[in-house]
Amino acid sequence: MECVFGLVGDGFALVVADTSAVHSILVHKSNEDKIMVLDSHKLLGASGESGDRIYTKNVALYQFRNGIPLTTAAAANFTRGELATALRKGFPGVSDFDLGCFCYDKETGPSLYYIDYIATLHKIDKGAFGYGSYFSLSMMDRHYHSGMTVEEAIDLVDKCIIEIRSRLVVAPPNFVIKIVDKDGAREYAWRESVKDTSGAPTA
């Protein structure tokens, strides 16, 4: 029951992800960060198995090995190529995997790329994947407009989260919001209804 969604506003891109780590009927933790910071101006939101999400760090590894920072389009296409190669070679664990690449370039500004489990790449202004997308996409279709301010975008995000929590059968309780703009990629806020107690002592 994962959900990752995001949008492009006026000078920024914003991504939201649930923070539940689940397997079958078990919730392992409720503070899993599914949005990776690839570099100072790139975020990568992913749904799927946790081990496969780490696989996307190959973008950062490529930059480290070659000493060349990738542009937004280059990072998105590199990720798509890695996923396509893994899919065609039959590597295990990449059959149910969706990505959103949220970046900011000085030349082109903010952008959002959507990559699905069969390595199809699209540049979009708003997008969502996971079961929560059935509700967040309808809210964004109704309320999203180009040139949104951060305040308007956060208000829309809150509307999406409320809709997911009230309509999805097994709705994730917590969400993390991150933003990327000319000042860099950073965590913006959390929307929590359940505190993680996995590390708490038991009586």
TrEMBL record:
Any single Pfam family the record assigns to this protein: Proteasome
Subcellular location: Cytoplasm; Nucleus
Biological processes per GO annotation: proteasomal protein catabolic process
Gene3D superfamilies from the UniProt entry: Glutamine Phosphoribosylpyrophosphate, subunit 1, domain 1
Organism: Hevea brasiliensis
Function: Component of the proteasome, a multicatalytic proteinase complex which is characterized by its ability to cleave peptides with Arg, Phe, Tyr, Leu, and Glu adjacent to the leaving group at neutral or slightly basic pH. The proteasome has an ATP-dependent proteolytic activity.
Gene Ontology cellular component list: cytoplasm; nucleus; proteasome core complex
Matching PANTHER family: PROTEASOME SUBUNIT ALPHA/BETA
Ranges annotated as spanning the membrane: none
Keywords, alphabetical: Cytoplasm, Nucleus, Proteasome
Keyword Cytoplasm: yes
Homology family: Belongs to the peptidase T1B family.
UniProt name for this protein: Proteasome subunit beta
Subunit structure: Component of the proteasome complex.
